[in-house]
Design goal:
single chain, alpha+beta, two-stranded antiparallel sheet, two-stranded antiparallel ribbon, 4 strands, about 15% helix, globular
């Protein structure tokens, strides 16, 4: 079971997408705190030192999809997660 799931879909201009990606890209260099403006709300995340990334591109049916996925453990540093 997921502790939390959030999804936000919207149509954006290239400049708006660039602003969101820049905010997300700056976070790891500036202490790990990411704040993304999503419509009327704001999403705040703490990004750790180590994470996994996946980039996926799908082309078909006249559309292209670029998916950038970042994953990290929510366990506190110094604690080992149960496997």
């Amino acid at each position: 079971m997921k502790d939390l799931e959030f999804e936000h879909k919207s149509s954006l201009s290239r400049l708006e997408v660039a602003d969101q990606l820049a905010a997300l890209a700056a976070a790891p260099r500036a202490g790990g705190r990411a704040e993304l403006q999503l419509g009327p709300g704001k999403l705040s995340l703490q990004i750790p030192h180590e994470l996994q990334s996946e980039i996926e591109v799908e082309v078909g049916d006249g559309k292209m999809e670029l998916e950038i996925e970042l994953k990290w453990s929510t366990a506190q540093e110094g604690q080992s997660s149960a496997t």
